[in-house]
Amino acid sequence: LEKARRFLTTNELVDAMVKGGYNVGKKEPVKVYDSVYGSLDHARKKANARIVRENGSWGLREWGEKGGPG
Q1: Using CB atoms within 10 A of its CB, is residue 8 exposed (0-12), middle (13-18) or buried (19+)?
Q2: Contact between 7 and 67 (Cβ < 8 Å)
Q3: Among 25, 29, 42, 44, which is most buried by a count of CB atoms within 10 Å?
């Protein structure tokens, strides 16, 4: 998210991970999606979490509702 510098959907995050070299191997796309979504959802529920979900997209708390930094 920090590199993208904007809120992203789970699908956009998965696509960026694959383009960035993340090897999904023979995993079904839905399993990769579920894994990414589950990890982000778990992280956002922790105390002092930086990850937030707004309007179906993931971002960083310090971005607020602006859709990205600055």
Answers
A1: middle
A2: yes
A3: 44
Q: What is the pTM of this model?
A: 0.81
Please work out, in degrees rounded to the nearest 5, the angle formed at the alpha carbon of residue 65 by the alpha carbons of 60 and 63.
35
Q: Tell me how far the alpha carbon of residue 46 is from its chain's centroid.
A: 15
Length of the chain in terms of residues written? 70
Q: Using alpha carbons, select from 36, 37, 44, 45 the residue that is nearest to residue 18.
A: 36
Cα distances (angstroms) measured from residue 41 to each of 22, 25, 33: 20, 23, 12
Quickly tell me which residue has 């023979």 as its tokens: 26
Question: What is the pLDDT tens value at each position of the chain, 70 positions in all?
Answer: 888 889 999 999 999 988 988 888 887 778 889 999 999 999 999 999 999 999 999 999 988 755 555 5
